[in-house]
TrEMBL record:
InterPro entries: DUF2786 (IPR024498). It comes from the Bacteria. Residues 8-46 form the DUF2786 domain. It comes from Amycolatopsis bullii. This is DUF2786 domain-containing protein. Residues 212-239 are annotated as: Disordered. The lineage of its organism: Bacteria, Bacillati, Actinomycetota, Actinomycetes, Pseudonocardiales.
Length: 239
């Protein structure tokens, strides 16, 4: 996605409308949803071009560092972005800290993952600096609230991106091969590459989180700005 990409420019215009204080919350959400659809459409277009031989797209890796605090929760957000975009993740841990995450996928999809994660991490950081527990659980720590808030935020992002990707496949213009088959084959190729490299590793045990922030975070995630143009911003650590 370059600065001159017409799809990216259209996304910018939609998000500018969503950020206009004159529009209603429902209108802003509609603009943001359309932006998510265009991000998904970009991924399908690149996949179909590669499948037809009109473009090139190879499987590669992208390693993204994670910073404390909440490195595990940041890694969870990255995974929630990566999986709907047909990528896989490997967490590099040192004790309870996640030092970095390696993302496996096709180059065009890795670009989308990095762009969206950068934007969403900045949005989460900004909001976490403001939100506080609502007092429903006396004595609840701020850290526990923030962890569950991030969990809810990541879940909502995953749901939105999954719906957008499914709709992009469903509405793709037919070619020599259907978009559904192209996407399925690409997902299998990525999984095979991942298994070949790291198939002997075990999945991490599910986390048990305590805190009341999940619903607040989920609500924020449903309204998050899915703007890929924020790659030029500097990734900020959560405070």
């Amino acid at each position: 996605m370059t600065e001159s990409d017409p799809q990216l420019e259209r996304i910018r215009k939609l998000l500018a409308k969503a950020e206009d204080p004159a529009v209603t919350e429902a209108e802003a959400e509609a603009y943001n949803q359309k932006a998510a659809e265009l991000v998904a459409r970009y991924g399908i277009d690149q996949a179909m071009l590669a499948a037809s031989g009109a473009g090139t797209d190879e499987i590669g890796t992208l390693k993204i560092p994670m910073d404390d605090p909440y490195s595990r929760d940041k890694a969870s957000l990255l995974t929630s972005v990566a999986y709907p975009l047909r990528c896989r993740t490997l967490l590099h841990r040192l004790g309870q800290k996640v030092e970095s995450v390696t993302v496996f996928g096709f180059r065009s999809d890795l670009g989308r993952v990095e762009l969206l994660f950068t934007s969403l991490l900045l949005q989460a950081s900004t909001q976490l600096n403001r939100v506080r527990p609502g007092g429903f659980f006396p004595g609840e720590s701020l850290a526990a609230y923030r962890r569950t808030w991030l969990h809810g935020f990541a879940r909502a992002v995953h749901e939105r991106l999954s719906r957008a990707e499914q709709e992009a496949v469903r509405t793709a213009v037919p070619g020599e091969r259907s978009a559904e088959l192209v996407v399925r084959d690409r997902a299998q190729m990525v999984q095979h590459a991942f298994d070949t490299e790291y198939g002997d590793l075990r999945a991490a045990s599910p986390r048990r989180l305590s805190g009341s922030g999940y619903l607040d975070g989920h609500d924020a995630g449903t309204k998050a700005n899915l703007d890929p143009a924020t790659l030029t911003r500097r990734r900020k650590a959560l405070r």
